[in-house]
Each structure stands twice: as structure tokens, then as C-alpha cells.
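Z., the sequence and structure:
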Amino acid sequence: MLEILRLRFVDRDKAFAQTLTSIKNEMNARNMFHSGATVKRGHDALVKELVESRRTILATISEEINISRPNKVDKTLTDNAVNWLTNRKLFLESFYLEQMDVIVASLQNAKALEPHMNLSAEIELNEQELRRELAQEMQRYFQSRGTTLYDRIKNQFLDRPLVVIAVISIATVTTILSFLALVRAI
């Protein structure tokens, strides 16, 4: 799962770099390159990328759960997901500051733009959203496994085709042997 997540983030990083380049080019064309407006638009893109990163983490975990169909979902999964989001936030902030360094260095009122230089205001909300969304996804997964004990056992049984084949084979052999024993007894 971590490898898939890493590869998805590589794609997201390329898209984010292109977005920042596009913003800088557009603002340069308007002769507003060295302005706070460029930083603010870049920050909006940064916030949007954090939200998309949260969605990517959620989608990757959801796919993993639905493909592997575990009997138990690890309790640390949510904490791991939040750690992944926090690490992603740190990477995005660092990358964003590298891209905006030229602009910020030339600004005279750079102090006023400090709220637009990081994701500290947005990370808590996104962490809570990720926790909530993961809880909903896990609940959906557990409901898909069945609402009654019978449904859960049946689904677990059917998720293991080799076990199903073995049980059917044993039942068939037992039935044939019982029939032969009954025929001999007559």
C-alpha cells in the first residue's frame, strides 16, 4: 500500500509543480509576479493539494481494504493515515516554499503573508476529516461483510475459494461414502 501511495504522490507532485508554475506564469504576464497575490494564489493551490492528498490517502486505504478483505482492520490504520498526511503536509510546505522563495524574498510586507506560507491552519481540519472519512469507510466495509453473524460467516467462507472447494469436496466424498456404506448394509 505504501508503494502505491508513494507512486500516486509522485504524480500529484508533478501536477502541483505544474500548477505553481502556471500561477507564476500567469501572474508574471499580469506584471504581478512579485506581489502578495501570487503568494495567496499559490497558497490556495497548496491547500487544495493537501485536500487532494487526504483524498488520495483515503482512496488508497479504501482500495486496499476492499481488495485484501481482511477479517480485522488494524486499529493503527487511522493513526498511520494521519501520519502520512502530516508527512505529506511537511513535504508540500517545503516544496511550496522552495517555489515561492524568489517572490517572498522580494516582498516588502512578507511578514503579512506568513499565514499564506504554510498549512498550519488547515492541517488540523484535514486530519479530523481524514479520521472521520476513514471511520465511515471502515463502517461501510464492515457492513458489506454482513449485518448478521450468519452473513459474516458466509462472507468469510466465500472469500476463501480454496476453503469452499475443500468443504465441497469433503461433503461430496462423505456423501458418496455414506451412500456406499448404506448400499453394502442392504
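The CA atoms of residues 133 and 139 lie 10 Å apart. The helical segments are 2-29, 36-68, 77-106, 120-144, 149-158, 161-185.

Let me know what you think.
H.
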